[in-house]
Structures are given as structure tokens and as C-alpha cells.
Write a structure and sequence with these properties.
11% helix; 1040 residues; eight-stranded parallel barrel; Jelly Rolls; 10 helices; six-stranded antiparallel beta sheet
Length: 1040
């Protein structure tokens, strides 16, 4: 048997050429090669709606349904760990063409009859690379046998994996299925045609947990740096088969919104816009009649841990709806003949490209249909067939097709032949250019046989330019005469039905009353039922008043973060871990917290289902952490795997009312603001176009508190670690207060959400008191400002870092046995944040200069509580007693303060609102009093330099003393300075009560050289700076 390549010419030409391929030498080290592995999810416009497609199939919902059949693949598998090499990593991240797949299959581990008796037994799911061992970021192979009931042979069957890290490749019964990149989002593969129904099946899964930092030069995986949490690997979430009807409901995407009357939101009515996505994987067109209904729910201890929507559905509580709740559409399966080789469509030469010896002709005796077929006689040593040409220069568009087939007749008898499909990039004539897709090897025994390319099943189809298909090649064949006829393609349609419904007699979802509903979609009167859990709530930012609104009510996000890691199981998570997760969430609720940032990655989907039910608002994040400028641009412009993960995260958790924020990245490198903003805006636009019911944010490094990339965010996520990781150690309040003022000055109409804060306790809890100090002082700075929309302590529990070391910043120990002192401090400060009133100074802003009689005006309002309403609004100067303010109507209050009763200089002005439940809220600003006397001339008395060392990080500190002409300390003077030498940053710092201002340089890793600080100016209202009187203006210090 000869293995040659023959192609079908003009638009589909059959060629003959050699089929040698280049393979990577086993064991031969290679430098990291840029990743070329393709992203696997895309958006398509179907019936004017956005629909996600994964490997050319509509992306499934992962909510389990009672009326579908599930085959759980958890349990005992055969298991092998492989020590990886750079060659292995390069192969894993290579485009899934024939060469890469051959490399992946070179061990034979995927094959049906591979003897895996020597492999270990292992129960799945499993979390690999646990602590207590060396790093085991390896290649993991898993194999198992299973039986699929014969009753499922006419069903559409998907293999679903809810989480496997990092690159996953799957084979079923020896056939390569597909791949997925990313460890935290869920994915599904169509395996319907690969299974042996009623018989034994073998599944092989290869999971490659690529080591962080291995890609520091290429920066092309997500994430690519060693982070401050463990890089767990393996198949650590559910893996199962889901069987459903060929015509089925893929997903129901719900957009909730409020209804209004007289401009006010209605608490007992709501609205939903619903996209119902249907897919027909069958053989014939079918009509889909869809009827929607909505039910109330009952959530209690008997069902709260069951993630299925039907588990909480209350059939006795149908919700009244209005709008068109029934609709129908034909979901087609279209078979089209592209080429039948009739003489009026072209000459034999139009369908044929000759590389070696062969002779094309029309045949009228042996035909499949019509009057002619295309006859190709292959000579000794090569030559064969070219077909599929609508015109000699045309191409075939298969972008919406699911399969392509051609009828072949082989006069040699009992030969096995194989065809290969090529795109327009393969027009070079040598048969080896471009991208290609194989058919199955088929036995053709002197009869017409249909050979089909499944454009969904094989991953190579993703590599083809499907709208520019040019050739069918005869790839494996014997010399002789072949006949070709009837090139056909099939489109299995996806359709979308849209519904717009009003709901009556409901409650809005809030953390205090997490009202949930279940949407039931009935396809063809019970032919298939699909349920989804949802709630009605509206989240937005009030830019005019710089605050976060839930259901139009100002709401404080009393928050904490949580890593998806638990004792004994680490990141392994299935329904068995739901009870432990509920305990974690209950600890959150018990601390008066209403908001969780679910760390830096998408958690198990059940976590968000449980958050819906327990009433916890959620920040869900793309795992784009610590990216630099090159990485942001690489993902946005080239790889786009981050966008794939973004889409998977949003569409998987689309109907979760608990999720209020989609987050694009965490702590992008300082200096990468331009690239980061472009990356964020791209993802923001995607989220708005497909969802639009949530805020989009990021978490920036707090020391870069005026980060220009914040301009495109809805709410300002800032990780605040002043006094911990930067600034003067232990100075939490003053530095944090100055930082958030700088941010607010830069973005005055956007509220700040403190996305991280905290410090560690040590494993022996020796720093528990310092955790409390950090919380108390830092939270005080936040509590004084109404533009702080929320605070997030990092984290609720201790967790494990990438090297396997304990990170003890949690409010609870890793084993959940001890609530640290800071837990109770947070609990106390968060106690009334849900019901506290609001207050905001209107007439005076931070750092204002006041003189004479000052009119103080404030806005105050109360929205929640037992007795709703404002009792008093008061003001005070510094630590004086509070004075009452007078109501002016429209929730405004005022008072007159004689500023001459205070000394010239720096003061604080505080306004406080108290509601009828005795809950309080304050707004504090720093002001300067200048009544024309008491000012003077100031100069620099001294500059003292010192070095601050924390591990490899080093910075210089300049202590500037400002005094008046009598050498008395000057408080509230703003010192401007410039660093030079090792750094070039600038500083603006205020003098304290003792006249001292502390400036800190940027941190450097292991520097060698000199830090120099030079004062460039000093300002204070009513005062004059006399640089000629300076004792010194500049000072330096060297390191080491």
C-alpha cells in the first residue's frame, strides 16, 4: 500500500505528494517556544444574539438536570505521573495539528489496548501538587474503562470537566477528541460518535500542569508567574458524561432588571430578558416549541447543598408572568450537494490537480447520482484525483457546517483509503502546505461508500480556514481507478428564541433576603425540560454620588476574600465538599460579611450556586495575575486565551445573581498601565455586550494609587497594603488615608472598593495583635470616606503559597479550628454596615482652606432598618463635642461654624448621621484654617536618611523637618521632593504635629548605589517658604 497524497483541484483538488513529517526528538532539550495552541471558545451571532461556541458546538450550561442521564466518571482510574521536559511543554502548547497530536500519542497511552496494569490506581477527582511534598507540576495521564448504556446510543452525549489544570487532552476509544487550556473554567466535548454503546469504552486524559515561571520569557500561559497561592494540578473537579436528546436546550441566559413606578423601583415586581439556545444534533430538521414558566423556591437544610435547580423549586408557588412566554422555531439539519460532477459544471481538469501521473475523465456508467461521476486513474507511483470546484478560482465556505462528505467508488476492491481536507493555505501544490483535517480510514469494497469529515469531532477542524476550503486529498490509497461523486455538506443548526417577561409578586435578591426563582423551559411539551436558578437584582454605580447601589439602594460591601482550598482535599471539589464550603460561607455570614472575592480565579460552579442561596455577593476574577505589559498585549492581540477564559467564566456563571463584579486582572505590573487598560477595555466591552448586568473592575497595586488604567473600570478595585508591603511599616492609618485621597482626587466620580487588605498572624499566631492593629487603623481610614464602597480582608482562611509555605493572613486558621482575634474585630466593625445611614459633606472637600464663618452642608439619608429615617446630623471639629445641624429639606442639613475659634493650621471636620435605629455613619475631611494671622516663614531644619530592608526589597526613607523662624514645628506643610540616583520617583508628603514629613522611595530588589532626596518646594496656606534659610535641601544615603 502506498501512502501518497492526492488532491482535488481548483476549489477542491486532489494532490499526490510525500507525507513525511518532522517530529521532536524525545529527550532532547529545547528552549521554550512561543505557544501556538488555539483558543477553544468563540462568539457567534445567532438570530441577533451572542452565542458562545466551544469546538464548533454551542457552549453548554453546567447546571445538572433531573431529566437528563448522567454517567459519573469519578472513581478509580489508572494513573501515571511523568516528569516533564521543555520539549514536553512545547508540545503541550503547540497548535493541535497532526505533528503535535502524534507527539502526544507517541507513548501509546491513549490507545484502546494499552496495558496500564503497571500504573497506579487513583480515585478522581484528585488535587495534585498538594503541600507537604516537593512541587509536582507534571504531566498526568489518567485512563479508565467504562460502559455506556445502549439506551443512550441515539442521544447527544457530552463529556464534561468542571476543572482540570492546565492543558487537557482527551481520547475516547483511541480517537483524539479535543483539548482545553485553562485550569479554572469548565468545558465540554461532544463524544456522541466516539462511544461504544452497550459495550466497553476506554477514556484517556492527559493533563499537563505547566510550572509557573517556566514561561517567564514567553509569558504566554495564564497565569505565567509564580503567584502567592499553590499551583494545584490534575482533574480536581467533576468529570462526567451528560446525555440529552439530539434536539435539546443548550442554555437559558437570563438578564434580570428592576421595574419602576414614578421613578422608584418596585420591590415586588421584576423583569427578565431570556435567550433560549437550542441545538439540533440529529439527522433531520425539527420544530422546537418552547414554553417558559417561573416558580418560587424553598431553600432549607434539606436541599441547600443539592446544586440542581429543581432541588429548590417550589411547584406550589408558580410566579405570575406577563409577556409572550411561548415561541417556536425550526432547528434545521441541512444537507446540500456542493458538487455532483455533471458536465455542465466544469471539465475534468477543473476538478483535478496533477502532481504525479494520473488521468481524469467523466464517467457515465459508474455513478452515484445524476449522469456522471469523476474518474481518476492513478498510475504506478502516484497521481490521483481533484474534486470540489464550484469554479476554478472559488473556495467552499464550511464555516457553519458540521460535516463534509464525498462518495467514493474503488474498483480495486477491499482497499482502505483515507481522505484529507485542506484549506486555501494548501494551494502551493506540494500537498504539504496549509492546514488539513483527516477523515477516518474507510474500507471501500467495489461499491459507493460515503466518507465523511466531521468538522466538530476532530480538533484539526479548528485549525482550518473553514470559509476557504480548497481541496480534498486522497491520502492513503492503492494504485488503480477511483470514482468520486456528490460532495455534500451538512449544517446542524443552532437557534435562539428570545423572551421578555415581567414577573409579579416576587422579592428582589439581596444578601439579607436572597430570593431565588427557577425558570422552567419546556421543549415540545415535555420532550425535554431545562431548569435554571436565578434571582432579580440590579447592580450599578451612582457616579454623581460616588457610591455602589444594589437595587437602587446605597450598599456597603462588607467583604472578605477566600481561596478555593480546604483541609484534606485542597482544591479538589465535588458535591461531597459542599458541606465544608457551606461552613466556610457561614463563617463569612457570621462575621457580618456580605461580599466575597473568590480569589484570583473562577471557583467551582457550585460555589456560586451556594452563594446565591446563602446571600453572598461575589467578585469573580479572570486569573490574569501579575501580568506585565508584554503579557497583556500578547493575550489581547495574539493568543486570546485570557479572553477564552473570560467568556467561559461569564457564560458558565451567567445566571448567578450573587455575582456582581467580573474582574479582569489582579495587580498588573506598575508601568504597564497603557497595555493593561487596552486589555481591560477589550474584556469590558465583551462583558457589556454579552451581559451588561454586572460591574467590571480590576485590582491594582495600592502603591500605584492613581493608576491611569482605572479610567475604564466601573468601580475602583485597589489592593491597599500601606504599612505592610510598602510605606512605613506599621503606619496603617495615615498612609492609607493619604492614598485613598489621591485616588479619589484622580477619579472623583468612581467609588473605591478595597479589593485586598491585611497582614499575617504567623503560624504560631504571634502576630494576631498586629493583625488587629492593621485592621483597626486601616479600616478607620476607609470608614471616614463615603466614596469607599467596600472593604475586603484578605482572606477568610489561611491558605498555602506556591512554594508550599503557609500564608497566615486569614481571619481563621487553615484547619478552621481557630477564629483569630481579627475575625471578631471585623465582625464588630461590619455589624451595622447593611442598615447604617449615609452621610456626605457637600460644601467642604478634603484639604480645603477655611476662614471666618463657614457654612457646613451635608446630605444624609437612611434606607434600611427597623425604623428607617434620619434622627440627627451633627458636626465636630477635631475631637470636640458634636454640634447639631439643621434640616434644610431634601435630605440636606447645614450649620455655621466660626473658624476663628480654631487655631490656624490643620484640623479635621467630621459630620455624622444617626438613624432611628441608632446606627451611625461619618464623613471626615482634613481642612486648613487660615484667618490671616499666625502664618509665617518656614524652612527645612534637617533631612535624615535611612534604609528600609524587607527581604530582597530595599527602599530609602527621607525624614524632613520643617520649622518656622522660631524653630517651632510647622504642621500641615506640604513638602514636594524628587528622588534621584537609584530611583527617579517624586513625592508629596504632609508634615505631622511634630513638623516631620516622611518620604519613601520606590522599592528595588537588591540595589547597589545611592538614593538621593531633594526638596523642591514647601507650601502651606498663609505661610511663606524661605529656601535660603534651609539648613539643608538635599541628602543622600548609599546601599549596601
Amino acid at each position: 500500500m502506498f501512502r501518497k497524497i492526492v488532491a482535488i483541484a481548483a476549489v477542491l483538488t486532489l494532490l499526490v505528494c510525500s507525507s513525511d513529517t518532522v517530529s521532536l526528538a524525545k529527550g532532547k532539550p529545547q528552549p521554550p517556544q512561543p505557544a501556538t495552541l488555539e483558543q477553544t471558545l468563540e462568539l457567534r451571532q445567532i438570530d441577533s444574539a451572542n452565542v458562545p461556541f466551544q469546538h464548533n458546538r454551542p457552549y453548554s450550561s453546567f447546571e445538572k438536570q433531573n431529566n437528563r442521564t448522567y454517567l459519573d466518571l469519578a472513581g478509580t482510574w489508572k494513573y501515571l505521573k511523568i516528569v516533564q521536559s521543555d520539549t514536553e511543554i512545547n508540545t503541550t502548547l503547540s497548535r493541535r495539528d497532526g505533528s503535535a497530536i502524534s507527539q502526544l500519542e507517541s507513548s501509546g497511552y491513549h490507545t484502546l489496548n494499552f496495558n496500564d496494569n503497571g500504573w497506579a490506581n487513583q480515585d478522581l477527582p484528585i488535587c495534585e501538587n498538594q503541600i507537604g511534598s516537593l512541587k509536582e507540576e507534571k504531566v498526568y495521564w489518567f485512563r479508565r474503562h467504562f460502559t455506556v448504556p445502549i439506551a443512550l446510543q441515539d442521544k447527544y452525549v457530552e463529556l464534561k470537566l468542571l476543572g482540570a489544570n492546565y492543558v487537557t487532552d482527551v481520547w475516547v476509544n483511541g480517537k483524539y477528541i479535543r483539548w482545553h487550556e485553562g485550569g479554572y473554567t469548565s468545558f465540554a466535548f461532544d463524544v456522541s460518535k466516539c462511544l461504544n454503546y452497550g459495550a466497553d469504552n476506554v477514556i484517556a486524559v492527559r493533563v499537563h500542569n505547566i510550572p509557573w515561571d517556566n514561561r517567564n520569557t514567553t509569558k504566554d500561559i495564564v497565569p505565567y508567574k509564580t503567584l502567592d497561592f499553590r499551583n494545584y494540578g490534575g482533574i480536581f473537579r467533576n468529570i462526567y458524561l451528560e446525555a440529552k436528546e439530539p434536539l435539546h436546550l443548550v442554555r437559558t441566559d437570563i438578564k434580570p432588571s428592576l421595574k419602576f413606578s414614578g421613578g422608584q423601583p418596585l420591590e415586588n415586581d421584576g423583569h427578565v430578558d431570556v435567550n433560549v439556545v437550542l441545538y439540533n444534533a440529529g439527522a433531520t430538521t425539527q420544530t422546537a416549541d418552547v414554553d417558559l414558566s417561573v416558580y418560587g423556591t424553598i431553600v432549607d437544610e434539606s436541599n441547600i447543598l443539592d446544586p440542581k435547580p429543581e432541588a429548590i423549586l417550589n411547584v406550589l408557588n408558580p410566579i405570575t408572568i406577563s409577556g409572550i412566554s411561548s415561541n417556536s422555531v425550526d432547528v434545521g439539519v441541512t444537507d446540500s450537494v456542493y458538487q455532483d460532477f455533471e458536465p455542465d459544471n466544469g471539465t475534468p481538469g477543473d476538478y483535478f490537480e496533477d502532481i504525479w501521473q494520473s488521468s481524469p475523465a467523466f464517467e457515465t456508467t459508474i455513478v452515484h447520482s445524476g449522469t456522471t461521476s469523476l474518474k481518476i486513474a492513478t498510475g504506478d507511483g502516484g497521481g490521483t484525483v481533484g474534486i470540489l470546484a464550484a469554479s476554478p478560482s472559488g473556495y467552499l465556505d464550511l464555516s457553519t457546517a458540521t460535516s463534509l462528505s464525498v462518495w467514493v467508488y474503488d474498483t480495486q476492491g477491499s482497499n482502505t483509503i483515507q481522505l484529507r481536507l485542506r484549506d486555501a493555505d494548501g494551494d502551493g501544490g506540494n500537498g504539504e502546505d496549509g492546514n488539513y483535517l483527516w477523515s477516518d480510514a474507510t474500507s471501500v469494497q467495489n461499491q459507493w461508500t460515503k466518507i465523511t469529515f466531521d468538522l466538530n469531532r476532530y480538533p484539526d477542524a479548528a485549525n482550518l480556514d473553514l470559509d476557504r476550503i480548497s481541496k480534498i486529498e486522497l491520502y492513503e490509497w492503492y494504485e488503480g481507478v477511483y470514482y468520486f461523486d456528490d460532495v455534500e455538506y451538512t449544517i446542524n443548526e443552532t437557534k435562539v428564541l428570545t423572551f421578555s417577561l415581567d414577573l409579579y409578586g416576587i422579592s428582589l435578591w439581596t444578601p439579607v433576603n436572597p430570593a431565588l426563582f427557577v425558570l422552567k423551559a419546556d421543549l415540545n411539551s415535555g420532550g425535554e425540560l431545562f431548569y435554571t436558578q436565578f434571582g432579580i437584582r440590579q447592580v450599578e454605580v451612582d457616579n454623581d454620588n460616588c457610591r455602589f447601589l444594589l437595587n437602587k439602594v446605597p450598599t456597603f460591601l462588607a467583604g472578605v476574600a477566600r481561596h478555593e482550598s480546604m483541609p484534606n482535599v485542597f482544591r479538589k471539589f465535588t458535591e461531597s465538599e459542599m458541606a465544608a464550603l457551606k461552613t466556610d460561607f457561614q463563617n463569612v455570614k457570621d462575621a457580618n460579611m456580605n461580599f466575597i472575592r473568590t480569589a484570583h480565579y473562577a471557583n467551582h460552579p457550585n460555589a456560586y450556586i451556594l452563594a446565591d442561596r446563602m446571600g453572598i455577593m461575589i467578585w469573580e476574577e479572570l486569573v490574569a495575575t501579575w501580568f506585565d505589559a508584554e503579557a497583556f498585549d500578547l493575550q489581547r492581540l495574539t493568543r486570546e486565551v485570557a479572553k477564552q477564559m473570560w467568556l467561559e467564566m461569564i457564560y458558565r456563571d451567567y445566571n448567578r445573581p450573587s455575582i456582581i463584579i467580573w474582574a479582569t486582572n489582579n495587580e498588573g505590573t506598575v508601568g504597564a498601565e497603557t497595555q493593561k487598560q487596552a486589555f481591560n477595555e477589550d474584556l469590558h466591552n465583551v462583558a457589556d455586550s454579552i451581559d451588561g448586568t454586572r460591574l467590571v473592575a480590576q485590582a491594582i497595586v495600592g502603591s500605584n494609587d492613581t493608576d491611569s488604567s482605572l479610567a475604564s473600570d466601573d468601580i475602583l478595585g485597589i489592593n491597599e497594603y500601606w504599612g505592610v508591603f510598602y510605606g512605613t511599616a506599621g503606619d496603617y492609618y495615615g498612609q492609607t488615608k493619604a492614598s485613598i485621597k489621591r485616588t479619589n482626587n484622580a477619579y472623583q466620580n468612581k467609588p473605591i472598593l478595597v479589593s485586598e487588605m491585611g497582614t499575617w498572624s504567623n503560624e504560631d499566631l504571634s502576630r494576631m495583635a498586629e493583625q488587629v492593629n492593621c485592621w483597626n487603623d486601616t479600616y478607620q481610614a476607609f470608614d471616614e470616606k463615603p466614596y469607599i464602597a467596600g472593604v475586603t480582608w484578605w482572606c477568610i482562611n489561611d491558605w498555602w503559597q506556591a512554594p508550599g509555605t503557609a500564608q497566615t493572613m486569614g481571619a481563621i486558621t487553615w484547619d478552621r479550628a481557630t477564629k483569630k482575634d481579627v475575625y471578631y474585630s471585623i465582625q464588630a466593625d461590619y455589624a451595622n454596615t447593611w442598615t447604617q445611614p449615609v452621610v456626605k459633606l457637600l460644601s467642604i472637600s478634603d484639604d480645603a482652606t477655611l476662614s471666618g464663618d463657614v457654612t457646613i452642608t451635608a446630605y444624609a439619608e437612611d434606607f434600611r432598618g427597623t425604623s428607617v429615617g434620619i434622627d440627627t446630623v451633627q458636626y465636630k471639629i477635631d475631637s470636640d463635642e458634636y454640634n447639631n445641624m439643621t434640616s434644610q429639606g431634601d435630605n440636606q442639613y447645614s450649620a455655621i461654624w466660626d473658624s476663628t475659634t480654631a487655631s490656624n493650621g490643620a484640623h479635621t471636620l467630621t459630620v455624622k448621621s444617626t438613624d432611628y435605629d441608632s446606627h451611625e455613619r461619618i464623613h471626615l475631611v482634613d481642612v486648613m484654617v487660615n484667618n490671616g494671622s499666625g502664618g509665617g516663614v518656614m524652612h527645612i531644619q534637617s533631612i535624615d536618611m535611612s534604609i528600609v530592608v524587607r527581604g530582597p526589597n530595599v527602599n530609602a526613607k527621607a525624614d524632613v523637618l520643617v520649622v518656622d523662624s522660631n524653630n517651632q514645628a510647622v504642621e500641615g506643610a506640604l513638602v514636594y521632593g524628587q528622588w534621584s540616583g537609584l530611583t527617579s520617583d517624586s513625592d508629596q508628603v504632609l508634615t505631622d504635629l511634630t513638623g516631620h514629613a516622611i518620604a519613601n522611595s520606590d522599592k528595588l530588589r537588591n540595589p547597589v548605589g545611592t538614593f538621593t532626596f531633594t526638596v523642591t518646594d514647601i507650601t502651606k496656606d498663609g505661610w511663606t517658604y524661605d529656601p535660603e534659610s534651609n539648613v539643608e535641601t538635599s541628602d543622600s544615603i548609599s546601599y549596601p
